[in-house]
Amino acid sequence: NAGCGPKDFPELKNDAFLLACRGQETPHVPVWCMRQAGRYLPEFRESRAGKDFFATCRSPAACCELTLQPLRRFPFDAAIIFSDILVIPQAMGMDVQMVAGKGPTFPEPLKEPEDLLLLQSKVDVIKELDYVFKAITLTRHKLEGKVPLIGFTGAPWTLMAYMIEGGASTTQSKAKRWLYRHPEASHQLLKMLTDIIVEYLLGQVAAGAQALQVFESHAGCLGPVEFQEFSLPYLRDIARKVKDQLKESGQDVPMIVFAKDGHYSLEDLSQSHYEVVGLDWTIDPRSARERTGGKVSLQGNMDPCALYAPKERISEIVKKMLEGFGTRGYIANLGHGLYPDMDPENVGAFVEAVHTHSRHLLNLK
Ligand SMILES: Cc1c2[nH]c(c1CCC(=O)O)Cc1[nH]c(c(CCC(=O)O)c1C)Cc1[nH]c(c(CCC(=O)O)c1C)Cc1[nH]c(c(C)c1CCC(=O)O)C2
């Protein structure tokens, strides 16, 4: 561990992202992309070639390299640690494999409430997920203070859905069956996940994460009523518990909640102790501002597919997006992750358009 402890990190040189999380003034609108470390980069494909996905996640050196790759190409204002949300079900004792062309797969998903007994009830998060903490500490050093490092987790409902579906699903009907047929067991599982997530996020901050994003990627298959019961209380709990604990040690780390396709929940999410609410592209920037009433910063939300447009068109779309959100309390991003067939040059055009147009808008003030 010599020379790599979570202390004496290099001084941060670009704090635009952290300032924007807190609604403070910045010289330009900060920008990063979900899945910025990914298969659209040839160097990523080369590093990952022939290696097992979760073995890569367990190698701090590999995670560090993959996290840094996009920053060598583009002037992103934040880095997000390379890892996966499914490391938590693994830490709970479930087998998860990444199957090429199919995505994450659980050979033995949860079927009935009795299966909860097969899960590790007391997970030693610090020990089981130590490899993630090591990756964060190493990456924070290697970033040399260029930009802040974001840690992340899946939200309880999204993780529960994977653990029951056993992989990708369009309807999430197996997982939703639990909500309607086994509400008590569902809450038991969601609570178990919440406790692990809180410890996991605190461990990430101790290791050097400077902001935290919670991915509720499967919000879209819930309606407002189910969301209120099975997602929102746990999202709130996570933010409150993490913040309370951090406060005790005099720390304060901005938190982002991203509930994909959860447009119905925007008002609630803006009052859930998160500094930032992430948005997908189905929400109009101006209406998002009105509905959140200036209570939070907003992040998002260009349709990732707009990156298939020519560069000039990308620039126009970005300009409209910036005019809609305004330049204060705003972090530019896509409405979801980049796809493997996207052109890195257009990602560069997106980043440049955000910086150029936002500087221009800020100078007009
Ligand atoms: C749902 C989810 C997962 N993982 C994640 C989510 C939440 C975000 C979202 O809604 O997309 C989170 C995640 N996964 C990954 C990151 C890394 C950081 C970044 O955004 O750059 C992050 C933040 C790396 C990854 N995670 C994965 C990849 C691609 C596979 C590879 O590198 O071999 C990457 C770069 C694999 C993964 N892991 C998961 C899926 C659905 C897939 C895609 C499977 C496929 O496309 O074949 C589960």
Automatic annotation (TrEMBL):
PANTHER family for this protein: METHYLTETRAHYDROFOLATE:HOMOCYSTEINE METHYLTRANSFERASE RELATED, UROPORPHYRINOGEN DECARBOXYLASE
Catalytic reaction(s) noted: uroporphyrinogen I + 4 H(+) = coproporphyrinogen I + 4 CO2; uroporphyrinogen III + 4 H(+) = coproporphyrinogen III + 4 CO2
A Pfam family it matches: URO-D
Subcellular location(s) of the protein: Cytoplasm
Protein's recorded name: Uroporphyrinogen decarboxylase
Pathway: Porphyrin-containing compound metabolism; protoporphyrin-IX biosynthesis; coproporphyrinogen-III from 5-aminolevulinate: step 4/4
The entry's keywords: Cytoplasm, Decarboxylase, Heme biosynthesis, Lyase, Porphyrin biosynthesis
Annotated source species: Hucho hucho (huchen)
Highest taxon of the lineage: Eukaryota
Annotated GO CC locations: cytosol
EC top class named in words: lyase
CDD domains assigned: URO-D
Start and end residues of each Uroporphyrinogen decarboxylase (URO-D) domain: 30-39, 150-166
Known role: Catalyzes the sequential decarboxylation of the four acetate side chains of uroporphyrinogen to form coproporphyrinogen and participates in the fifth step in the heme biosynthetic pathway. Isomer I or isomer III of uroporphyrinogen may serve as substrate, but only coproporphyrinogen III can ultimately be converted to heme. In vitro also decarboxylates pentacarboxylate porphyrinogen I.
EC number(s) reported in the record: 4.1.1.37
Gene Ontology BP terms: protoporphyrinogen IX biosynthetic process
MF (Gene Ontology): uroporphyrinogen decarboxylase activity
Family membership: Belongs to the uroporphyrinogen decarboxylase family.
UniProt xrefs under InterPro entries: UROD/MetE-like_sf, Uroporphyrinogen_deCO2ase_HemE, Uroporphyrinogen_deCOase
